[in-house]
């Protein structure tokens, strides 16, 4: 696989993970991750991929919302053999009932996914996912989301991206 083909295959894996999340297709989502993958989204979630799917698919998880829409945009993907790292900007829209525990209408979260991926048997899968959060806002109430300070983006070289990409 050429570097360009590998980059596109990684991009496809990331897109299918977002699509699977919004469609609540847990089997598809699971297939985008390594069996022992870790997901760290700060105050939202930190644990194994199996725990992540269990949390998202629970009655209090995504089924409790009316809809979600994870839009991926700017991305940087670097492939080295059968390993890759990716930084992908995301805008995450959540629409829920007014009495929802944290959504209460319409919430937008601006963040980046920082992923480590591996290729096995011709398929790229996420082995570790971290979230770096820019900001979030409940557009219905007009209030800012309270985000885990340890996962907030930094506007200097202390940002988590440098642990993946070095000086790139």
Automatic annotation (TrEMBL):
<feature type="domain" description="SnoaL-like">
    <location>
        <begin position="4"/>
        <end position="130"/>
    </location>
</feature>
<dbReference type="InterPro" id="IPR037401">
    <property type="entry name" value="SnoaL-like"/>
</dbReference>
<dbReference type="Pfam" id="PF13577">
    <property type="entry name" value="SnoaL_4"/>
</dbReference>
<protein>
    <submittedName>
        <fullName>Nuclear transport factor 2 family protein</fullName>
    </submittedName>
</protein>
<dbReference type="InterPro" id="IPR032710">
    <property type="entry name" value="NTF2-like_dom_sf"/>
</dbReference>
């Amino acid at each position: 696989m050429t570097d360009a083909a590998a980059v596109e295959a990684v991009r496809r894996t990331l897109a299918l993970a977002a699509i699977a999340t919004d469609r609540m297709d847990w089997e598809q989502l699971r297939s985008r991750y390594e069996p022992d993958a870790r997901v760290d989204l700060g105050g939202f979630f930190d644990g194994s991929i199996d725990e992540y799917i269990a949390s998202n698919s629970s009655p209090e998880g995504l089924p409790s919302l009316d809809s979600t829409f994870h839009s991926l945009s700017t991305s940087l993907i670097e492939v080295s053999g059968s390993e890759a790292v990716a930084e992908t900007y995301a805008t995450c829209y959540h629409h829920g009932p007014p009495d929802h525990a944290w959504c209460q209408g319409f919430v937008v979260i601006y963040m980046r996914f920082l992923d480590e991926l591996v290729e096995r048997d011709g398929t790229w899968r996420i082995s570790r996912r971290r979230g770096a959060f820019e900001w979030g806002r409940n557009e219905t109430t007009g209030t800012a989301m309270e985000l885990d300070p340890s996962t907030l983006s930094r506007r200097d070289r202390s940002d988590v991206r440098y642990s993946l990409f070095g000086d790139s």
